[in-house]
Each structure stands twice: as C-alpha cells, then as structure tokens.
C-alpha cells in the first residue's frame, strides 16, 4: 500500500470516527459548560486564552459534587502516601498424596516464602515507578473527566531521559472512540 493510499485510508477512518462522535458533542459541551467549565468546549477551537468560563452556571452543585467525589477518591484511594494495591496470586495448590510438597496442599501460591518476597519486591517497584511518574498529579483530571464527561483517554508515554512514564489527558475534542461489532472499544 502506497503512502497516498495510507493517507486516504487514515482520512477516511477519521471521517468515520468524527461521524460517530458528532451526536454526542452537544451533550459534552453542556457538561463542560455546567460541570467542568475549566475545560474548553469542543466548539471552542480557536478560543482566546484567559476567557472567563463558568459564567453560564447558575448553581455550582454539579461542579462541587464532582470535585468532592474526585477529592475523596484521589485523597483516600489513590493517595501517594498509601499502599493502595497489593498483588496476590489466585487459586490454591493441590499436590498428590505422595508428593513431597503435600504439606502445602490447600495453600495459595503466594504463601510460599520466595513467592511472597518476589510479590512484595514487585509491589515496591511499582510504587516507586508511580512516585517517579506524574500519576498522582494527573489522576484527579483522569477521574474528573471519567466522572463528568464519561470518557477519558489517558495517553501513557515513556520519558527515557528521566527513566519514568508520563501520563497526559488530552481534551475530549482530540479523541475519537469507536466500538467493534461486539461493543468493545476499538480505535486501532
């Protein structure tokens, strides 16, 4: 396939994705207007920076509710000062009656001392990677977009120079989502 054909194919796919998203844009603009007015609307393509937002909002109940939810979730569940996840292996071991390992019958694999040490070391490595990244700085925006707009498309990149990963949350207008025939998100 030539480069021109690839370009035509990509443009055709983008046009199809725009058509899929178009019916939802007005509703997303309403949500941005009244709930997350810190974001610019989809229709504000060439908006002057510094323009006041939220002046259409009569009551701040929706905005405050989203902020309380986001603050509660990120402060209690996804705090950088808490160990908010742990690795465990499912299933119990079953050995034959004649096996030398029969003393471990009915126990989980992560109860083996060496496996337990490995899982703990892996957890520590994951927490260290999260602390080096911008996860805890950006998770509020991720949760806020998910709760208010209903869709969030975080982009994960590797910063090789600083040996960390970086998460970016593009605006809804920059993302196009499609589903395959089974209803699974598929925008490859």
TrEMBL record:
Give the main localization category.
virion
Name the UniProt record assigns to this protein: Uncharacterized protein
Classification via InterPro entries: Connector_podovirus
UniProt-listed GO biological process terms? symbiont entry into host cell
Location of this chain's protein in the cell:
Virion
UniProt entry keywords in alphabetical sequence: Viral genome packaging, Viral penetration into host cytoplasm, Viral release from host cell, Virion, Virus entry into host cell
Where is it found, in Gene Ontology cellular component terms?
virion component
């Amino acid at each position: 396939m030539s480069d021109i054909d690839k370009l035509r194919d990509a443009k055709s796919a983008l046009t199809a994705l725009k058509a899929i998203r178009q019916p939802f844009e007005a509703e997303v603009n309403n949500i941005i207007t009244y709930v997350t007015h810190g974001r610019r609307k989809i229709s504000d393509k060439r908006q002057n920076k510094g323009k006041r937002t939220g002046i259409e909002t009569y009551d701040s109940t929706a905005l405050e509710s989203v902020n309380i939810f986001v603050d509660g979730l990120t402060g209690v569940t996804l705090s950088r000062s808490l160990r908010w996840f742990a690795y465990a292996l499912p299933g119990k071991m079953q050995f034959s009656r004649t096996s030398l390992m029969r003393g471990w019958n009915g126990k989980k694999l992560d109860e083996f001392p060496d496996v337990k040490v490995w899982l703990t070391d892996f957890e520590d490595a994951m927490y260290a990677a999260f602390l080096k990244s911008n996860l805890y700085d950006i998770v509020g925006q991720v949760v806020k977009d998910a709760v208010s707009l209903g869709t969030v498309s975080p982009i994960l990149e590797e910063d090789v120079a600083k040996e960390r990963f970086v998460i970016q949350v593009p605006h809804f207008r920059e993302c196009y989502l499609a589903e395959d025939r089974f209803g699974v998100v598929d925008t490859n």
